[in-house]
Amino acid sequence: MVALASNSAVVVFSGGQDSTTCLYWARERFSDVQALSFDYGQRHAIELQSAAKIAAMAGVPHTVAKLPIFEDLGANALTGGTAVSGDLASNGLPNTFVPGRNLFFLTYAAAWAYSRNVQNIITGVAQTDYSGYPDCREDTLTALQESLRLGMEADFKLHTPLMHLSKAETVRLAEQHGGLEALAYSHTCYNGEFPPCGDCPACQLRAKGFAEAGVADPLVLRAADGV
Ligand code: ZN
Known about the structure:
By secondary structure, this protein is α/β, with parallel strands linked by helices.
């Protein structure tokens, strides 16, 4: 078993609200933090722009890895031409579901971390509040950590600081770790709009979380200021 550096961490970083919160959480726990984003054919370039901006604000080195395999898997609303809707498909999942996406991301992140002597891998998945993506659940992540440790013979640790938090609790966690200012640049809207559309399921979930936390969403404030 390879002993990786315990002070080092990589945050799987989409530029969204959850992974931004994780980035600021990680910065206080580990002395050597890096952010890793994936260019996987997502419809909106704004996501990667948000990621680059926030990583710079946080003073964290940022890498974008190309992972173009999802476009070949077939249509879904995040990479294909299918429209986003709140309706469930015949498999009971929203049409924003990309099968196995987090498994690919985390496996890639582990291989990336291995070659850079990084022990800790942080992901902003949560099984609360979400639509039931099976690769965001705790039992999946626990099993995956074991697979990564066995499969690469290295002592990886997968961290999921948001796993059991509501959206409101995630907002408070960002606030505690000094991440609120960066959330002004985080991207959430499924329609890729700025100012955010306010109507899609992602915008509505985000708005509900900030409202319940009693915190004004800095992204909405920035949009209102027209910057
Ligand atoms: Zn939206």
